[in-house]
Amino acid sequence: MVLEAYFDESGHPDDPNVHAFSLIGFRATCITWTKFNSTWNSLLNKYGVPYFHHRELFSKSRKSPYRDWCDEKRKSFLIQLTEVITRDLNSVRGVVKKLPNTGRKTLAQIYGDSYRTCVHASRLNLRKADKVNLIFSSHKQINSKSFLQHHQMLANAYAIYQNDHRLGTLQFKDFRGHPPLQAADLAAWEFAHHAHQPSPPTYAIKLLRQMKNVIYY
After folding, report:
1. Interhelix angle for 71-88 vs 30-47, to 10°?
2. For the chain, how big is the Rg over CA atoms in Å?
3. Are 93 and 125 in contact (CB under 8 A)?
4. Cα(164)–Cα(47) distance, integer angstroms
């Protein structure tokens, strides 16, 4: 059986006002993702927007597709999207890290560390004959070419030295055309925000935390 795991990040260590970083995603079969995409896109069409992006949802930018929305509509949209995630998917995978006040790693460094944790989390509880392909949201500050090379080396090492062929391919894609990456963006923002400001938890984080979690703090 082939599965796909989609990941996105939230929190940038070069911003002193940000105190948590997350790289969060979801793993499911291709059949599950097809059904999820249909439900997600139907909700986007209902609200008349082309995609979901958490940072833009509450932004006042003229470029935001939600710029004319009232706060009540934004919150309702977010809740309904989270309900789609928690209804159609069964677990959250990834990492949440508190950022120290000083001596922080660069984004590339903390992203690299978190990527390796996500590789481990994406392979958990898979049968020997299964394979999981990883898809990460593209980021202009992340050198995707170096990650692709490292990923291939890692997959080869698993196969040669551990006879473990479960780690499939790695791809980087634009979140705008991929609902699973938009779902990962929602979860990554909520988990990083909750780690940054633990209380009171939002309704979205309450729902996400009720899922079967494979989260590494």
Report:
1. 160
2. 17
3. no
4. 44
Residues 6+ apart with CB under 8 A from 158: 164, 165, 166, 167
CA gap 170, 151 in Å, rounded: 7
Angle at the Cα of 212 from the Cα atoms of 208 and 214, rounded to 5 degrees = 95
Rounded to whole angstroms, how far apart are CA atoms 47 and 114? 33
Count Cβ atoms within 10 A of the Cβ of residue 183 and give its class: 0-12 exposed, 13-18 middle, 19 or more buried.
buried
For the segment 83-90, the average pLDDT, to the nearest whole number, is: 96
Report how far apart the first and last C-alpha atoms of the chain are (Å, whole number). 29
Q: pLDDT tens digit string along 18-68?
A: 899 999 999 999 999 999 999 999 999 999 999 999 999 988 888 899 999
pLDDT in tens, 110-144: 999 999 999 999 999 999 999 999 999 999 889 99
C-alpha 109/C-alpha 36 separation (Å) is 32
Q: What is the pLDDT of residues 148-193, one digit of tens each?
A: 999 999 999 999 999 999 999 999 999 999 999 999 999 999 999 9
* C-alpha neighbours within 13 Å on the C-beta side of residue 169: 5
For residue 124, CA distances in Å to 91, 130, 170 come to 11, 11, 17
